[in-house]
Amino acid sequence: HGLCSNTTVKSLDLKGNNLRTVGAEALGKLLRQNKSIRRLILEWNSLGVWEEGFSFFCQGLGANNFLQRLDLRNNQINHQGAGELAVALKQNASLQELDLRWNNIGLLGGRALLNCLHSNKTLKRLELAGNNVPSDILKAVEQAMDHNQDRQTILSETQNRAYILSKEVLSLKDEKTKQFLDLMDTIDKQREEIARNGRMSAARVSQLQEALDEQHSIMNSLKAKLQMTEAALALSEQKVHNLGELLNATKQEQTSMAERHFTELQQQKQEGADREGRLLRDLSAASEKNLLLRNQVDELEKKCKVQQDQLFQVKQDLTNTTAELKLRAVQAEERLEMEKRRFKQSLEDMESLRVKEVDHMTQHIEASERSMQDRIQRLEAIRIALEEELSQVKAAALTERGQAEEELIKVRNQARLEEQQRLEHLEEKLRLMTESRDEAQNCYLKQKQMVAETQAKVNQLSLHADGLRRRLEELQQDLNSKEEEKVTEVNKVKVELQEQIGHLQAERTAQDGLREKIAALERQLKALSSNHREALLDKEGEISMLLEKLRMKEADISRMREEEAQRASFLQNAIMAYVQGSPLGTHSSRK
């Protein structure tokens, strides 16, 4: 009663205590409730004297799933007690060693224990010496013990292999997730760089537009100045007309002087008309140039809009690629889970097939037990030969297993080398990408310098325009005093306007060059995005190759297991056919 709830005692020795019915019942209760005892020694007691108490003890043993070693030597157990033990061993799944030496089990008890060993697959050691059990049954029990040991070793090996494979799969998953996260980080960084470049390009475009607006304002001011000069010319024409009237009044007094003045006035009129024609021509040329400049500005705005659309498309492509990568990763994980489920189902099917084969073998052995008792003495030599063949077959199987394990190690090493090479290739690609990024940054800095230079030029032009305004004011003052100096000043203004127009055209060519550089940078960005896509596709191909290798390895393992099962079934069928077809079987049937 004290040990039923105890959880620390692992070994219990009750040797030589003359335990009988009450003690057997108490021990059965203990085995039902205790979950910590692994070793129980009951040597030199009398547990098998009373059948009811020993049956209760056997029921407790059948319900226990924690006991591993049980010593029942010298307990007066008969063939009925052995039958109860056989029923308990069919239910028990933890006992590994059972010592029944020096009891009264006999032939019937030995058969019952041999029959229970077909369903019990955990018992590794069963001692039956000193129980009047025939030698053929003892050898059969030893063979069953060997079979259980081999089976447990195979199961432990398969479990270890499955555990190792699961670890490798988890490590591969972790590596792939790390690589995927690294790629996502690089893509995010590139997105941020693209957004920054887009912002900077938009700022540049806005600055260029502001410069163009300033140039438009300068042109409008120049147009206003030209209008003022035209008004001054009209005033001069009115003055000339007044002088003509004065000359007509003085004709009566001095005809000769009038004729001279008339000729001089005609010459002046012709010169004024020529000057007016030249001014009109210059104005028409300036208006045409203004129209060309407006058209160019419209074209530049259209190009900016196209570039913005292209940037938006690039962003959409990046989002689509990230979504596709996530979907592919989810699909790969689902495939791995499906393969695990298939592997588990195959293992369960193999276990069910083995159970069916064992049941079939038990039926055949029960049918042939009666005929085998007389034949076993004559077939000992034959059995020894067969056991040697079995040992050879086991050695061959072990060698094949060693070869298979060596092949698996080679395949793993090759896979690791391939992964290392691929990682080095990817690192080289990343290094090249960083170099290209640095080159793009250098180009960007150069473009910044060019923009600063253009801004300085625009400031110089604005200062120059202010100087021109002052000069025009001085010219207006001089026009009131001297008409002849006005003509020379107008020519100077035309020359200066032509120089300014040339400067503006040079600045526009520089702006076109800057826009071409921006387009080249956008092409480089597109190339970088395409390279990233190719790298992602390569990664997906590597993942698919690894999955195929895992499938091939699982198929090889299942094939090896099927071959081992077939070899065992072939050997068992050969033994049964040889025993049934031997002359001993015919002799016993005649008797």
UniProtKB/TrEMBL annotation:
Coiled coil: 205-239, 283-563
GO cellular component, as recorded: centrosome; plasma membrane
Keywords recorded for this protein, A-Z: Coiled coil, Cytoplasm, Cytoskeleton
Superkingdom, natural source: Eukaryota
Main location: cytoplasm
Entry protein name: Leucine rich repeat containing 45
InterPro entries given in the database record: Centro_Cilium_Assembly, Leu-rich_rpt, LRR_dom_sf
Gene3D superfamilies: Ribonuclease Inhibitor
Segments crossing the lipid bilayer: none
Subcellular location: Cytoplasm, Cytoskeleton, Microtubule organizing center, Centrosome
UniProt cross-references to Pfam families, sorted A to Z: LRR_6
